[in-house]
What we know:
This protein is an alpha/beta fold and about 350 residues long. It has eleven helices and 13 strands. Strand 3, helix 6 and strand 4 form a beta-alpha-beta unit.
Amino acid sequence: MPEAGSVLFSTKPEKIENSMTQIARQVSQFAQDVKKGLTATPKYLPSKYLYDVNGDRLFQRIMALPEYYVTRAEYEVFKFQSTQIIRQAVGREPLQLIELGAGDGMKTQLLLTELLKRKVDFSYYPIDISSNALKMLSQSVRRLIPQDFPMLPLQGDYFEALNSPQLKSDGQKLILFLGSTIGNFSAPEAAAFLARLSSMMERGDKLLVGFDLKKHPQTILNAYNDKQGVTRDFNLNLLTRMNKELGANFDLSQFAHFPVYDPVQGAAKSYLVSLKEQEVYCSALRQRIFFKAWESIFMEVSQKFDMAMIQDFAHQSQLRIVRSFTDSRMMYADVLFEKS
């Protein structure tokens, strides 16, 4: 896969043509996934499509909300324990630091700074499906870190990008999966995801995963039902995206955002609920979608974990837990695994 400089920012005609082909392919896949979700029973939409340009902007606002403790808890882990993390994580060199899901760079830059301080021979490979997220991350990291180092963003599906020729190396891989993105999967899906990741790792490779831990149910529910309504707008933005990109005619005022938390399953779920019986037409699908009054669309899950679950994941994935790094309130854990 080409480097970000040639994929994301080149103005050469052949590069523009390739980019347009890629965009068309993504729109087609978006339409297929929307059709599958909105014709299912019950209806759902894949959460990965929440992150367009406006969705990225809204999620940046969510991370700064007083109710959304997740980002602050993980930042505390990295702020005070980056030295210990890097000491435990780095074995042989050269190191390939691979980040699945581009964040804002605030947490990752602490690890990058520590690697530079220790003069580790490394390259940084952020991976994301969103070109906008990669561009924002690249700008943020270059702004926060004055030293020069190899940074090669890869746009696309995680597992496809992990098979990229650039990532074939005799060195060690350190894969980052931060921000409790693992919580976008149900517990069985998370186990399967980690097992698949493990299958692509070599003996001695490391994996650092951020887990939002179980805690008081009201604290969790508040994080997904903020008083300012930013999380509501984040979910409704997917309907706006479908209107814009797929020619749908959703009336956002006729859908309500409804989050719930199940403390037994440890699952915070978000829904959009139709406030009346209505019909939505989507020109890209050439199809009408019917909604009954109070019918819901499942938007996303934010799974919460405990250490027993995490230990089970490690066992199922042939991974060994090296160490867990937690914040001072024990709300969050970044767990370092090693491929055994």
